[in-house]
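User: Reviewer 2 asked us to show a designed sequence for the structure in our supplementary figure. I'm pasting the structure tokens here. Could you produce the per-position amino acids so we can include them in the response letter?
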């Protein structure tokens, strides 16, 4: 299992546009990918699940991937978060 933690920096929270971009990236991989925030763990390939977390500025999230392409998945999702300026990596 691979994981990374981020502190979210986006002012208005993770709304549909950004959540959708991250879910689309996660769907490119075969590994099981979870996102954890507010003490809830959700399938990162579910847009409704991700939106239900209510991710907002300064919130810490953790992304976990487990499977054959887990390392590639974590690296790609981390890169997407950085590229979109949604958060900063904590680990």
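Assistant: Here is a per-position design you can include in the supplement:
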């Amino acid at each position: 299992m691979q994981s990374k933690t981020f502190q979210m920096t986006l002012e208005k929270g993770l709304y549909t546009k950004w959540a959708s971009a991250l879910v689309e990236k996660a769907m490119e991989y075969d590994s099981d990918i979870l996102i954890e925030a507010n003490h809830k763990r959700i399938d990162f390939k579910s847009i409704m699940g991700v939106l239900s977390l209510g991710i907002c500025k300064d919130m810490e999230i953790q992304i976990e991937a487990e499977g054959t392409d887990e390392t590639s998945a974590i690296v790609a999702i981390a890169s997407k978060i950085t590229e979109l300026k949604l958060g900063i990596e904590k680990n």
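For the response letter, you might also mention the following. The chain has one domain: 2-89. Helices lie at 16-26, 47-52, 70-83.
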